[in-house]
Design brief:
This protein is α/β, with parallel strands linked by helices. It folds into 2 domains: about 210 residues, P-loop containing nucleotide triphosphate hydrolases (Rossmann fold), CATH 3.40.50.300; about 60 residues, no CATH class. It has 15 helices and 7 strands. The chain has a 7-stranded parallel beta sheet with strand order 3-2-4-1-5-6-7, sandwiched between helices. Helix 1 packs across helix 2, helix 2 packs antiparallel against helix 7 and helix 14 runs antiparallel to helix 15. The protein is globular, with a radius of gyration of 22 Å. The protein starts with a helix and ends with a helix.
């Protein structure tokens, strides 16, 4: 059996190998994804973001247990900062999710950001596709919770969960960073600590004062004890049902693919510049022209793009004849 066929059959070892293949960009990665892609699109993809220390991993772990109790299979992609030496995942979220990691119906994978813009690497999307094709009912993606990665999660998943806690001014910071704008569900975790009700009031007030949309569902949880987990799952499922009812799920996924394809085109062009000595040398001549004031950076970029794509354009024209 091919690796793709083994993934589709639910072979855990094959699933691990397949994700490693796409994460590393191995030569067979593209063919693997092509074979798997007809089975992609069945899983619900849910993103979890928020500041460090709010209990994202604990919440994800408890939600996995909840869905397993409903006989649903779960895939988890935990996106960690990269090690500056190995490029590998540094924090190892699987260590923090040991309570569900032994369940055969749950597959957990830590992935490194590898310096990708926003901390969500291209391979994260590919890993979600692999998990989806393997038959997982729910695929959860947990971000590193720092910088632009908090916002980019919306480009990867169907439903975005923003997690805050009643400590360290998380609510105020989230309002400033734009997190509220992407939230489909807001979870106030560690709600057994003082300040949870105050934070919820602040969040509701911020929507009334500064946004044109109604506040999303807000759920108070204490994930460490299981409080609020069923309510969080219900809020997530209600959002998915709303998207389907209003015909917006396909629209949302199309927007996600539009962004993803544009990013892949950008990466392909950058790779050609980096690995084609002739193209790189020609670009240096354009840089000299810009430095001399004989052309603008925009003109130079357009010429570089034309040069990088002209071979593909000629090839496409020949095939069309």
């Amino acid at each position: 059996m091919s690796l793709a066929a083994l993934v589709i059959s639910g072979d855990r070892r094959a699933l691990s190998r397949a994700i490693t293949c796409v994460e590393n960009g191995d030569p067979g990665a593209r063919a693997l994804l092509e074979e798997l892609y007809p089975r992609v699109g069945r899983a619900r993809r849910i993103g979890f973001t928020g500041p460090p220390g709010v209990g994202k991993s604990t919440l994800v772990s408890e939600l996995a247990k909840h869905w397993r109790s409903k006989n649903r299979t779960v895939g988890i992609v935990a996106v960690d900062p990269s090690s500056p030496f190995t490029g590998g995942a540094l924090l190892g979220d699987r260590i923090r999710m040991n309570s569900v990691g032994m369940d055969p119906g749950v597959f957990i994978r830590s992935m490194a950001t590898r310096g990708a813009l926003g901390g969500l690497a291209r391979a994260t999307c590919d890993a979600c596709d692999v998990l989806d094709a393997s038959g997982k009912d729910v695929v959860m993606v947990e971000t590193v919770g720092v910088g632009q990665s908090e916002i980019e999660i919306v480009r990867v998943t169907d439903t975005t969960i923003v997690i805050l806690s009643p400590e360290s001014g998380d609510g105020v910071q989230a309002m400033k960073s734009g997190l509220m704008e992407i939230a489909d569900v807001i979870v106030i975790n560690k709600a057994d600590r003082p300040g949870a009700d105050v934070l919820e009031t602040q969040i509701r007030s911020s929507f009334e004062l500064s946004t044109s949309r109604l506040p999303p569902a807000i759920v108070q949880t204490a994930a460490a004890t299981g409080k609020g987990i069923a309510e969080t799952a219900a809020a997530i499922e209600a959002h998915t049902e709303k998207l389907e009812r209003e015909g917006k799920l396909r629209e949302h996924r199309a927007a996600r693919l539009r962004f993803r394809i544009a990013r892949l085109v950008e990466e392909a062009l950058s790779s050609r510049l980096a690995h084609d000595p002739a193209a790189a040398a020609w670009m240096e001549t354009r840089i000299e022209e810009v430095l001399a004031g004989r052309m603008t950076p925009g003109d130079a970029a357009e010429e570089v793009l034309d040069r990088l794509t002209q071979g593909h354009t000629r090839r496409a024209a020949r095939l069309a004849k």
